[in-house]
Amino acid sequence: MAVAKLREQLNALLSSMITSFQQLKMLYEDRGMPGFIANVVTLFCDWIISDLASLLEHLIMDFDKVDPYVHQLKGSSAR
After folding, report:
1. Helices in the chain by DSSP H: which ranges?
2. Nearest Cα residue to 72 out of 56, 54, 49
3. For residue 2, how many other CB atoms are within 10 A of its CB?
4. pTM
């Protein structure tokens, strides 16, 4: 059950990040810098989500390893 709850939290965080991304994208596109935010966010997401996904695949999860990623993801998606 803990894994399902973590996945639910991860999905909520991803949804928040998408909203923030869309707002940032509009700001940078208005300033003539299309693609800048998309590249930065893509690199960050590829790294953190990949690491989180590999940790969530283990049958026995080490929450001490997952916790810093979740906090970083949450902090990075704050508005």
Report:
1. 2-30, 36-56, 63-77
2. 49
3. 9
4. 0.46
